[in-house]
What does this fold into?
Amino acid sequence: MSSSISSINSSSNSDSSIKKSYISDATKRQLQSLGIDPTTVSSESQAQSIINAKKAEKSFQDSLTTKTQATDKTTQKAESSESSLISEAKSLAEELGVSVSSDDTFDEITAAISDAIEKLMDKSANDPQALQQIQIYKTRLSQLNNQYSDVSTSNSNIYNAMSSQAANTRYMLGL
It folds into this structure.
């Protein structure tokens, strides 16, 4: 009885080595380059599945890295645009004689500019040149508000994309 068990064990061991011998040398090298021990794989098809899964994972990680880098550049550009718009608003405020502090937000600055324009309109109701200048100020303020709105929308879209990307990453990692 024990000799028949030994022969079964030796026959299963030889079957096991036969199955492992079906893995080509090139596939074994690919597995090793991916950090996978070829002896843990039992067939060429299983090895190819593992290799394809690892390549897909690497491709996904590379695309995430590329998207993250692009998002970082876009975020930096949007932040510099926001800063430049705040600087332009402060410059317009100075032209109107409105004092603003360095930590005022864009909305606070534009509200102060709007108030100053309203006061100028009240004072200059009968002066066509002053009204023309006031119209120029109003146009500049409107342009600044529109540009700031575009930048804010862009920032919002960037943050939503980053949030979605983070959710996808968590999903892919099974977290």
